[in-house]
Amino acid sequence: MAPADYLHSMFSLEGKTAIITGATGGLGKSIALAFTKAGAAIVSIELPDDPNSSSLAAAINEAGGPPVRVFSCNVADGAAVRKAYAEIWAADIVPDILVNCAGTSIRRACEDTSDAELDLLFELNAKSTYISCQEFGRKLLSLSRPGKIINIASVTAFQANRNTSAYAATKGAVMQMTKGFSNEWVSKGIQVNAISPGYMHTPLTELYYTDKAASDYLMNRVPAGRWGQPEDLDTAALFLASPMNSFTSGVSITVDGGFCGK
């Protein structure tokens, strides 16, 4: 086999189906497009009337992938997430890959974080990720089918920065549930890993990206000296989802320009 053919086969997702939460956001959309170009069909769990849904569908179509299949729910509502999965299974979709990318961030001092903000962060970032893993894994186990789960954590799971205590707590939870699910499922062929992005330029961080003082402060902490772009996560996600990864489970790949190593 020629080297190029070998690399293509090892990173190919041909014939695979990837369920992605948060696929209409900055990081999720980039991963969805990378998976599409590698041959996967995309199932998007997204908000009802998501304003970015048509943009995702158009981008996947332009990349030559099959039409994205959309299932709507408020991902911050655990019962709604379970209902969305029931609808996915009722549509006879057989899953191979799950990416939990839906999430949000609230920057607030510890003493000022409200109960409502805590509820939103933990429901969306932590509980919904757990439920999504649970529903996806249950289906694979019932089919005796292998699969790959990729949770999007954060460097704040390792270093809780100022004004990120609640967000960091949710991403720490994502790290621990990744390990827990892996411990129970990897022997059954379900690999569970995480990606921990650093400072990434997405709509969620636009406020800090465009504020020169804030951006300079943050970039002085990043040895690479630049903001990460959504595409910087693609290779890590492709590795974790592809046949190239046959033995990695229960870990996080940190994509942060050297931030955590500083």
Automatic annotation (TrEMBL):
InterPro entries: NAD(P)-bd_dom_sf (IPR036291), Sc_DH/Rdtase_CS (IPR020904), SDR_fam (IPR002347). It comes from the Eukaryota. It holds the Pfam family adh_short_C2. PROSITE patterns: ADH_SHORT. Keywords: NADP, Oxidoreductase. Belongs to the short-chain dehydrogenases/reductases (SDR) family. This is 2-deoxy-D-gluconate 3-dehydrogenase.
